[in-house]
Design brief:
two-stranded antiparallel sheet; 47% helix; 6 helices; Arc Repressor Mutant, subunit A; 2 strands; elongated; mainly alpha
Length: 150
Amino acid sequence: MSNVLRISDAASLGLHAMVLLAADSQKEISTRQIASELQVSEAHLSKVLQRLGKVGLVTSSRGPRGGFALARKAEEITLLDVYEAIDGPLVPNNCLLGSRICGGERCILGDLLETVDSQVREYLATTRLHELTSIYLPKDSQREEEDADA
């Protein structure tokens, strides 16, 4: 089934990898471990992590115990930071075709595209990595976290 919201594979991979790193922020995680957890290509993941490193979102160390870790606290990194590190600035698009061809003063979809763009930007800009870590926490950790919240 096709999705209306399109996020590149690289950006999606970056978002998931960053949340995974945030879930276990006390240690470095190897590219192999991340790729295995996300069930993705290690080569593609490596390129994405390199981009995230260039903009200062992750740090890395080489060697048998090396891997990647967040460069800043998970509370400080938004999904928009990660998205824009991979795909560049999130620019609103008010036309499905990229440029208006209809010649009309209004879009056939009304203000739907503008509304959706605004909602996506708002979500990405206000959601921080630490808010999503329960997605990748082991089941025992999730239970402990839920018990602590109760």
